[in-house]
Write the structure tokens for this entry.
Amino acid sequence: MQEFSHFIDGQTVTDPNGKTMETSAPHTGETIARIVLGDSKIVDQAIQSNLDALEQWRSMNPLERGRILSTLGRNLRANIAELSQMEMDQSGKTPSQIPAELEAAAQYFEYYGGLATIQAGEVVETGPGFHSFSKRVPFGVVAVITPWNLPLNQCARAIAPALAMGNVVTCKPSEYTSGTALELGRIAIESGLPKGVLNVVLGTGAECGSALVAHPDVRKICFTGSVRAGKEIGKVAAERIIPLTLELGGKSANIIFSDADLDQAIPASLSAFALNAGQVCTAGTRLLVQRDIKDKVVELMVDAASKAKVGSGPDAAVGAITTPDQLQRVHDYFEIAKQDGAKLELGGEPLNSEVGRYAPVTIYSDVTEDMRIAQEEVFGPVLAIMTFEDEAEAIRIANGTNYGLAAGIWTNDLGRAHRVADGLEAGYISVNHYTPSIFLPFGGFKQSGYGREKGIEALHHYCQTKSVNIKI
């Protein structure tokens, strides 16, 4: 059994408080790791290490910072086999899913390594006798708190732009999936990152995460996780008057119009809700189908989903549910959907698996807007199929939740694609595909959060603008 402890100032640190927890492999249920659980004292140690490294890192030539980050990206790729196995063991992912996910993690560091020199401000004409300009400067210490569903990918997504702008970072990954964040810290040192620029602390959100958010030297927080936890962090940040990037839940609408190419739409829509066993904030778990093709789409979706193998082997399309509590939550929604009157088309019952935490790919049709499976994030491979008559109704239904993270549109009418995209209250919209891009800003509307990650815009969320007005 492996033991994971904090990574601070370039080395593994054993926590003197002695608190630990054990985690089990989602694919087998076997205990695989003991996690050291930190508290405010270990957070203090990590932040002090950050502060000691801050001046060296933020004053470094941006070209050199960029080279280090780009090297880190390449070294992550060189270690992708070991990182993949660790993530599959800890999170329950399938062999077919993990390579693209970790490749994107490497790309974040390469991408932002290339952008490290663009933190320029602008010269502003303010009249004769003055030289006036603005510049972008880092916040200082940034706290990054990530969930268990995309462990290394989401660490990289936040850490790379924060470091590119000259900040230093303490990251707290989920206690269930800590391994690859610790490996990221180790590989970063091997890639030339100065000690203390990136630290990793382990522990629960209630103890370690809360201490990190409340620490007086943390100047910016980036959090990915539940709406409930996001609200609690928001309260603390409001009291401290520090900025947040919040990427919270989603109940994304994936809209299929009658002119769509179903040969492309069906398999992509299956992946949109079943990838990572549905444990993705952007998952297209509400399939909105134009009424005249509803029966055909239901038939095709059920046929495709029934062939999606659930398991851990190389041919598995749907992996395990990462935590025991999350598996129970998915099971609870089977009963909720039944009570609400949704029509079960596939799945809907716990799997009789003696090993591992698996949920069946599940499809409900005849779902109405007031049903809980149409409004609440299940975070499992569960699809709610709803129907609409025209563009206006599709937009209304799509916008009819408290969330607004992502959406998909399937149509061969370019004008319709633009009209519907303009009407949707969602931060990231895909047309005739359902895949993310690291080059475009990503974030939510409404209770899906605020602030943006990915793309050049993410850099602006990790710096503050300083204006200088010189009389000459």
Residues 143 and 221 are 5 Å apart (CA to CA).
